[in-house]
Amino acid sequence: MGDLTTLANLEEYLGLTVPPLTNPPSAATESMLSRLISAASNYMQTWMSRTIALQSYSEVRNGINGNRLVLKESPIVSVQSLNINGTVVPVRPPLGPGASIPPPWGYVYDDISIMLTGYLFCQGYQNIYVTYTAGYATTPPDIEQACIDLIGDWFKYRDRIGKASEGIEGQTISFLNPAISARALGVMQTYKRVYPVY
Fold it and tell me: 140 with 62: CB under 8 angstroms?
């Protein structure tokens, strides 16, 4: 699914590379952090039911006799091809002043869906084939920071695995051990795919 942050950004946030360096991170620590970056990135994207990085997709879908089709990945950046029942559907040119009536037939798209003019996503099974590009060219800053926060929690948790509290010099320190921190969860809910895809 792709990493949502870099080792350099994570180490900076954790204070591991902030001068003056009295104890720089070892190769073993950097290897562990790299593994945590991949694990947290995969965990977040699975939870959000989406891939963040920009990439190409091909979908074979069922038609339901509508003129709008919500695609699985977003935001949609471009649509390379659309085929319905073996017919190639062209891109519809933009409509503006002086546009012909009726308008030209074809498709247009927004961030999440393809819309048709003069065509239908005809009812059928596996009769629609679309190739498109969707995602973000660079990880949104809030998603990256949520990933860093999550990794930071995981990184610190290794020193208190299984502990709910700890007594030190007559004082008790209680630990919160949520699977996802409240900060990260708030961001992930913003990006979570919640609309149905048929």
Answer: no
